[in-house]
Every structure is written in C-alpha cells, then in structure tokens.
Protein: N5-carboxyaminoimidazole ribonucleotide mutase
Organism: Alteromonas salexigens
Amino acid sequence: MAKVAIVMGSTSDWPTMQEAAKMLKALGVEFDARVVSAHRTPNLLVEFAESAAENGFSAIIAGAGGAAHLPGMIAAHTHLPVFGCPVKSRALNGLDSLLSIVQMPKGVAVGTLAIGEAGAANAGLLAAQVVALQDEQVRDAVIAFRQQQTDTVLANDQLELD
Ligand SMILES: Nc1c(C(=O)O)ncn1[C@@H]1O[C@H](COP(=O)(O)O)[C@@H](O)[C@H]1O
C-alpha cells in the first residue's frame, strides 16, 4: 500500500505535525513520522529525500518553524509531491515559517499549507487525496470524511442569542 512520509525539523514540531498523522490515520493511510533537519542533519535530509520514492512513499509532508528550509530542500531532492507546513515559531508566530516555505523559486514546487495545526491536518488530507488516486479504500474514506463534515455543519446551522 502507498504510504506517506511526515518529516519535521525538530521533536518540538510534533504537537503540530501530529495533526497530519491523525488525519492520515483516520483516513486509513499508512505513514512514517520522523525528524529530519536541513540545518542540523543535512546529510540525512539528502539521503531521506533521494530514497523516498524507492522506499514506497507517494507524498511527503514536511513541517518546520522559523527559517523553515526543510520542505524546499526536500523538494529539491525528490520528484514526489511535497506539502510544506509552517509551524508556529515563538518569535514571529509562524509568519517567518510561512514565508520561508511559500516563496519557492519557479521550477521546484512545494504546496504550502496554513500556519499551525489546521494546516498540518490539511496536509494530511491532501496527501491522502494523492494516495486516493490509486487506492479506492482511501478514496471512499476521503469522500465519507467530507460528507460527515458537511452533515455536521448542516445539522448545526441554526444560531440563537446566548
Ligand atoms: N526550520 C528548521 C529546520 C529546517 O528547516 O531544516 N530544522 C529545524 N528547524 C526548526 O527549528 C525550530 C526550533 O527547533 P528546536 O525546538 O529543536 O530548537 C523548529 O520549529 C524546527 O522545525
């Protein structure tokens, strides 16, 4: 079965990046989650990204905070789709992470998600949608998830004064 890699710059990113893992698990997609850093483990980054396709990954979710070079550097070393997740930084609240990830030069693509946990969850959803192109069970799980979300909103659409 196709699987998804979740990588992050530090264990401190895990509370955010866990949202991607939770989404993949809910949709029945296999994943591996690990720390890889462009700055702190540059050789591991190259080794990981260059072997990701042959190791059976269909997509890579990469989360980092601050000077978040991880998603772009991974994208530079693989043809797999890379989804970049800006993790909230303490100094600038994640704006630095967002701008570091989103402003890729033409020719090397990173799909950038929103800052923080919602963005990480959506990275999981997008990666599952990539897997769903080849996997009917995951496709059905994605469709059911979306339908359930719609039903929940429609069942609670009436507002009253507090
Ligand atoms: N942005 C990067 C990269 C990278 O881009 O490769 N490696 C670590 N980091 C980030 O540094 C922040 C602080 O890390 P620590 O909490 O370990 O000090 C984390 O958000 C991490 O993603």
Observations:
- The longest strand covers residues 57-65.
